[in-house]
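Run log, item B.
One chain of 170 residues. Sequence copied directly from the ordering sheet:
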Amino acid sequence: MCGTAKFKQPPKDTDTVTDHIATDQLRHALAQFATGVTVVTCAHNGAPLGMTANSFNSVSLDPPLVLWSVMKTAGRYAPFAAADRFSIHVLHHDQSDLCLGFAKNGQYFDQIDWHYNDTDVPVLNRCLARFDCEQFALHDAGDHSIIVGRVTQLSQDTGRPLIFSQGTFL
């Protein structure tokens, strides 16, 4: 809560309080919150796999933990939920093409420069920050799973992050 102001309950009416919130209403309201954009990668059946995620967040400094979430019905859900190791790449402001590429195609690696790190996880050669992780926990969360990773290695660059808000990149 900001400052010392007390929170006042809004009046109960159909615009502010419901027993059920429509998915499209929730999605639209959540779009008001600006987020950074990441690409998460792992190895699956000996091949690189990636997906775009804006659900990335820090969890703990000691131990070093981060999280991201993935929809259970996503075609790439099972490989990421089962991955022992993965990398989370925070994208530069000029990498919206990379974001869109991995949103549509998990094998978008043909279009970019990448390599395998020392734990055989595919990593992007250019990003604002990278967190190499081992899976620490997997939590059920409605239609998503929350994947918590223990950061084992990181790297960072300088620049501005790619931001997504209200359906557009900033």
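Observations after the first pass:
- Residues 96-104 form the longest helix (9 residues).
- DSSP finds three helices and twelve strands in the chain.
Flagged for discussion on Thursday.
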